[in-house]
Amino acid sequence: MQPFNYLKPSTLTEAAALHRQADEPVYLSGGQTLIPAMQQRLSAPSDLIDLSGIAELSGIQAADGAIRIGAFTRHAQVAESAAVRSAIPALARLAGRIGDAQVRNLGTLGGSLANNDPAADYPAAVLALGATVHTDQRAIAAEDFFQAFFETALDHGEVIRALEFPRPRRAAYRKFPNPASRYAVVGVMVAEFDDGVRVGVTGAGPCAFRAHGLEEALNASLSPDALDRVEIPHEDFNRDLYASAEYRAQLVKVMAMRAVRDLFDP
Amino acid sequence: MTEATGIGAAVKRREDLRFITGAGTYTDDLNQPGQAYAVFLRSPYARAKVGAVDGSEALAVDGVLAVYTGQDTSADGLGDLPCGWLVKSKDGSDMVSAPHPPLAVTQVNYVGEPYGLVVGETLAVARRGAELVNTEFIELPPVAVLGGAARADPIHEGLAGNLAFDWELGDQAATDAALAGAAHVTALEFANNRLIPNALEPRAALAQYDAVSGEYVLRTTSQNPHLERLVLSAFVQIGPEHKLRVIAPDVGGGFGSKIFIYAEETAALWAAAKVGRPIKWTAERSESFLSDVHARDHLTRAELGLDADGKFVGLRVRTTANLGAYLSTFASAVPTFLYGTLLSGQYRTPNIHVQVQGVYTNTAPVDAYRGAGRPEAAYVVERLVETAARELGLDPAQLRRRNFIQPQDFPYQTPVALVYDTGNYQAGLDRALELADYPGFPARRAASERAGKRRGIGLSCYIEACGLAPSQLAISLGAGVGLYESGEVRVNPTGSVTVFTGAHSHGQGHETTFAQVVSDQLGVPFDSVEVVHGDTGRVEFGLGTYGSRSLAVGGSALVKASEKVIAKGRRIAAHLMQTTPDNVAFQDGAYRSGNQQKTIQEVAFAAYVPADYPEDLEPGLSEKAFYDPKNFTYPAGTHIAEVEVDTQTGAIELVNFVAVDDFGRIINPMIVDGQVHGGIAQGVGQALLEHGVYDEQGQLQNGSYMDYCLPRADDLPSFLTDLTATPCDHNPLGVKGCGEAGAIGAPAAVVNAVTDALGVRDIAMPVTSERAWRALQGVAGEGV
């Protein structure tokens, strides 16, 4: 690890000012990706701006038809939140299966989304639930937020403040974990709303996406069998030692079918 | 007393108190005043010429003390790292050894190969310095893939090719004839996947040199400190043996990977003298992945011939073994003498011929790892036997029974050199089938199918040769050292006992087991016996721990030393009781003659305070012994795996695993069970999860835990284990060794179960979910 300045602002305004003044600043949230990268000397920021002291990034509030979760909320807090478990139990379950206990106790919702790891779990939920990403500058729709491999719509210095998840009629998440890392080889969330079904997929491609083909089939008939004949385009899917693109396509379909089954038998 | 702690008692491991409370002392826990830190310069290329190494920028960093390269060690006359076992090719020629300098001098031959080191006041400074060293490399085309490597251009300058040896064992003509006349021949071609050992504690060294005394001290993660001292003095020639002390303190696992004499520990010791400061080096996990020896990595074609009655008539095996870029310490013995000799398995196969080509590639060196050659042999035999049974429509258990060596056949001379001492293979199989509820399998399979899953069961009746090794035999086969073990039993004046052993414990529990043995022999309290190991300054000599040899060889040496103690004590006791030694009996810690009695503690006191003492006897009560085994030991057993496969994803769940092993006499059943469990976990890892993968450019594709998959608790069921026992008949304890059985038996059992579930003839290890899914689809893959 290279030497760096450690800064701990207590407001978003202060954080933004510190960010503007530094040479190569990085925001520190849960640090579950950033700290290992710094230890391996793959990342060497001049200034580490720790967001843990900013009160307005914390807290979970349930409102009519939606739940708002502060960006600094740890995965374990989401998993254990009575409000989340009551409003969107699938989201609490997803959070409870991220990484291991140590990761869940430190990793944060906002940190995970800003990092946009192609195998992270939360992006599937944000897309399937049609969440809104509130930053210190604006509100970004889920579809516009995830742009490419480790790339988001966030501008330089922009900080996620909170996520607002609309409450679905029901939702379910299924993950097929990589045996080594336990990240999602493929993770699929299926969410049913009054106006239709949304499907968010993570792990399969370079960036999480909505599976419109699966959504169409499920809007026609919300049953596992409805997905049987759906083709999953996989030309640009990821390939690694554990899963080819073709196999990932199969897993997208199977995880989606199982998530649909879970909708009826949670 | 002996009921609770003697031979056969499940004594809790006394070393665990310090291990599980964080009070162990590992090499990285140790520090010396004024120590500096080393960081190694490693090749980023699989094969390249090393040009100028410019350390000037590094040396300009405040706190960087030195930058050394292979040129420096070479100029100082440091010798090569030797391979300790000379294998001869079938034409009688010696194996071809590629020169292996501790630090590469002119050419690097695998990614991660060290070619220099930076020494700094702190670890951070040394790392910063290492990043600033500018090295010119001229890349050369690598040979990183085993298939075709033997015929590729030589990777080493000056060698004619990449073939290190072309070895054979057995009668080729008779085997060819037997297969030609066989009623049925089962043939399989498969790879035995490359594994990376991953001991919990990475390798580390704390090296120091005292210019006044001229003494070197190396504290390091070694399974055999005396061998390390021998090689460093006799071959590398760092310093003379009597001025060189190697200490292996608590060592956090090895699985074989810490047997070998590595570049880093060697260079650190040399550099400590060079800079005049103690030097510390601890591998990062990513360094471990790249530079610890790897394991297995065979390509094999094997054919088993059967007659019309299902009796085996011949076995022909052709194997290409990946040796990596250099011959590591025991690399040549592993795919030859520890592999070809085991191909008879538990069976009366009258004709066997094996040919093994050992090949250099631009990958990390390959050497012994838990099982070392024997897992590869068991995999060949047990995959063939199971497949033959399926092809012939026979019950795999029944086909094995038909071909087992029978209890009355022992000692049994195999066609591949070994003489099995004792065994009862039928007993192990029967017990395992009972524990696995073999007759109930069809019902369980039907239940799985109703749930939309496939279920399979697989057997593996393995054998191993342990207790390495009769020295004369080993040396006649090319070993550069004897393979006896030494021990010393020192009864102190107050009657407590200090035991010194040349075996080394890095997880095996010797401090408990060996104390049980000596306390049982001498009839003294278990708590009064202390076991010392792992220090050439305290223990006279030793060959270390590997090949499940510690108890069979090291334990036997302690029995021999205990017998000498008892014999000397008898003369003292006879004198004290005013009788002759042949009138004195020793039992339960006391010498008796008539109604007189002297405890061994009283005798020890007399030996050190010889007021009334035999005139012709030396004072003291301490005896040493070397034990050279008469034969290998032959643990054997039956492992049965049962799996369930998710037909939509290919995900495999190991739902049951039974292991029934014959380790001879058991000293501590709890420790044995622990060894079996750990071995099975590693065997399951090889079958389902682990694979060290190099790409064609020789870059390791999975050098971290994000990609290299070790088995975890939730990958495994609770194992059902049991024992049968046919005591070894040629060592005094009757023991056979238990450390490697799980890793040897499990892979074939698991793959036999998976192929049974999938209904396919063969599938490559590790059987990933995608491989299983593709097998179910009947489609070829992208090579995953």
Description:
Chain A folds into 3 domains: 5-53, Uridine Diphospho-n-acetylenolpyruvylglucosamine Reductase, domain 2; 60-166, Uridine Diphospho-n-acetylenolpyruvylglucosamine Reductase, domain 3 (2-Layer Sandwich), CATH 3.30.465.10; 170-264, Enolase-like, domain 1 (2-Layer Sandwich). Helix content of chain A is 33%, strand content 25%. Chain A has helices at 12-21, 34-39, 75-80, 82-87, 89-95, 101-106, 109-115, 122-129, 142-145, 212-220, 245-264, and strands at residues 5-7, 25-28, 47-50, 60-63, 66-70, 132-135, 139-141, 146-148, 151-152, 160-166, 170-177, 184-193, 196-202, 209-210. In chain A, the strands form 4 sheets. Chain A has a 5-stranded antiparallel beta sheet. In chain A, a hairpin with a 2-residue loop joins strand 12 and strand 13. Chain A is globular. In chain A, 44% of the residues are buried. With 784 residues, chain B is α+β, with helices and mostly antiparallel strands. Chain B folds into 3 domains: 2-22 and 484-627, Aldehyde oxidase/xanthine dehydrogenase, molybdopterin binding domain (Aldehyde Oxidoreductase, domain 4), CATH 3.30.365.10; 31-140 and 200-253 and 258-291, Aldehyde Oxidoreductase, domain 3, CATH 3.90.1170.50; 298-468 and 631-777, Aldehyde Oxidoreductase, domain 4 (2-Layer Sandwich). In chain B, 28% of the residues lie in helices and 23% in strands. Chain B contains 20 helices and 28 strands. In chain B, the strands form 7 sheets. In chain B, strands 3-5-1-12-9-10-11 form a 7-stranded mixed beta sheet. In chain B, helix 15 packs parallel to helix 16 (550-576). The mean pLDDT of chain B is 97. Chain A binds chain B through residues 1, 40-41, 176, 179-181, 183, 239-247, 250-251, 254, 257, and chain B through 124, 127, 131, 286, 648-649, 651, 689, 691, 693, 701-702, 705-710, 715, 768-770, 773-774, 781-782, 784.
